[in-house]
Design goal:
Length: 527
């Protein structure tokens, strides 16, 4: 005889199934981001033993040159990942479900015995209630990994605003490595989890969809508690109104001997009348199981179809400034949240001069390709609020107070490098040329002499005490590949905002055009 035993609450099941597509999108978009700086290898010294993904893999999976799309998906779906995880943890705490999930002092021994059983080394599985020791350890580890992904993600996403978190993980580069390792951990857990679900069978899989298991009632030769994975006191001890033997054993077992008839027993429960049209015949466990299974799997199917439809609506949506319009809205929401919730006054960590790279990496040459460019004839052209044009030479700029500092330059591709820069603070430049009316506006626009490369930054970041109009690198004049004779160094932004070879500056209450924003990236690009 079968009985339905409740196992997983509805909330737990929904959190589980929502997390599956969300985490899949996070891993997929993470791969689009990882492609841009594929540097992780297993090596000893200069000998490389394993590289995770060869270039052929990226081409086959169509990952190449989709960094902006990957970042947009990652920075929008991270909120779904965070909120779903937060609600799950909150629910387990207040519902008491945590008691089934958190490992206890016996869990590691039980986990080892479970592994031996799964490997067919041990014949019998250790006793368990809702989860065995191995499951408790695995599911709790996933929660800890989720927290690790959240914290390392913040350390990478906002390393200036959350510099203390970045420091706790050993720095920007180290946090990125840990973030990548956690992603590999999710993939490994997913594979093992699927295998374990298959081995556990249909009844276990159905429980995570429909919430119940269909179990056999105990017989005379089977211990009552051991027969159930999640014992029901009513099954073990029977209803209070009936003797234990009558409640938990088949009636044929109540006979004292085969020769002696069983003592007469009168059931006080009245026999129901024959069903009428208005009366419903109670469903037996098999009928209940079929009905609940059908409804639950239909709901899961509709959820899957809805998630798939939403995916393609976003994926195939018309693009706005280089990225799908729903994602662009999500990036704007991120920008508004962080811009108003975090302080623009945070300073980027600085380093000793000995930490500065000798060979400073240079990415991109847009706006530097003018063949007839003459550094000696260069001027910085600043448009004032009243329409005047200030033309300032490099020697004039060098008369202003000089500032030097060493910080970790961060490229949007994911690499970083400690470098040493010198120049005049943008705030000192503003004060010297009395540009206070101009900086009352919300944005600053900058461009190269040929206007092929242009950026827009918020005025608060332009006036940050570490923002430089930079004319030196490593104590020497800027080389051509780094924007000779003047470039922007702004440590609170990604490298895409650090414009090389500045020629034009103006101020506006409207967002100035931005080269990389038009190609799908976030406008704010704040660290």
């Amino acid at each position: 005889m079968k009985k339905i035993v409740e196992k997983h609450p509805l909330a737990i099941r929904w959190f589980h199934w929502i997390n599956f597509p969300v985490l899949t999108v996070m891993i997929w978009s993470g791969m689009l981001i990882y492609w841009a700086n594929d540097v992780y290898k297993v090596h000893l010294g200069k000998t490389i033993y394993f590289q995770f993904f060869p270039e052929a893999f990226y081409k086959k999976m169509h990952f190449s040159y989709r960094l902006a799309e990957g970042m947009a998906f990652h920075f929008v779906f991270m909120w779904l990942f965070f909120l779903n995880g937060l609600l799950y943890v909150t629910y387990t705490i207040f519902s008491g479900e945590w008691r089934y999930l958190v490992p206890d002092k016996h869990s590691f021994r039980e986990a080892w015995l479970t592994v031996l059983h799964d490997l067919h080394i041990r014949k019998t599985a250790p006793p368990q209630l809702k989860y065995n020791g191995a499951q408790k350890i695995a599911y709790t580890s996933i929660i800890i990994m989720g927290l690790g992904s959240l914290l390392t993600g913040l350390a990478i996403y906002k390393p200036v605003q959350f510099s203390w978190i970045t420091w706790c993980f050993g720095g920007y580069g180290s946090a990125r490595v840990i973030h990548f390792i956690l992603t590999l951990g999710y993939c490994l857990f997913f594979v093992i989890h699927i295998v374990q679900v298959i081995l556990a069978g249909w009844n276990n899989f159905r429980a995570m969809v429909a919430g119940f298991e269909l179990v056999n009632l105990p017989n005379a030769s089977t211990p009552v508690v051991a027969a159930l994975s999640n014992p029901d006191p009513a099954l073990v001890f029977g209803p209070p109104s009936l003797p234990i033997a009558a409640a938990s054993m088949p009636s044929v077992l109540l006979a004292s001997t085969p020769e002696t008839p069983a003592p007469a027993y009168t059931d006080p429960t009245p026999i129901p009348a024959s069903p009428t049209k208005r009366q419903r015949v109670p469903l037996n466990p098999h009928q209940q199981s079929r009905r609940r299974t059908l409804v639950s799997f239909a709901g899961l199917t509709l959820f899957g179809l809805g998630a798939g439809k939403l995916w393609f609506l976003i994926k195939d949506h018309e693009k706005q400034q280089g990225v799908q319009e729903p994602l662009r809205r999500g990036l704007h929401a991120d920008e508004g949240l962080f811009k108003h919730a975090l302080s623009p006054a945070h300073l980027a960590p600085v380093f000793p001069r000995s930490a500065a790279a000798v060979n400073v990496r240079s990415n991109g040459d847009v706006g530097l390709g003018t063949q007839d460019f003459d550094p000696a004839a260069w001027t910085l052209n600043v448009t004032t609020a009243d329409g005047r044009l200030l033309s300032i030479g490099i020697d004039e700029l060098k008369q202003l107070p000089k500032t030097e500092f060493i910080f970790e330059f961060k490229c949007i591709e994911g690499w970083s490098q400690v470098s040493w820069w010198g120049g005049v603070r943008f705030s000192d430049f503003v004060n010297h040329y009395q540009l206070h009316a101009e900086t009352a506006k919300q944005y600053v626009g900058l461009s190269t002499p040929d206007k092929a490369y242009y950026v827009g930054i918020d005025t608060a970041s332009a006036l940050h005490p570490q923002t430089l109009l930079c004319y030196e690198m490593n104590g020497q004049p800027l080389p051509a590949r780094h924007g000779q004779p003047l470039r922007l160094i702004i440590p609170v932004k990604y490298g895409v905002k650090n414009l090389k070879r500045i020629s034009n500056i103006y101020f506006s209450d409207q967002r100035p055009p931005d080269y990389w924003y038009e190609r799908g990236y976030d406008y704010f690009c704040g660290l």
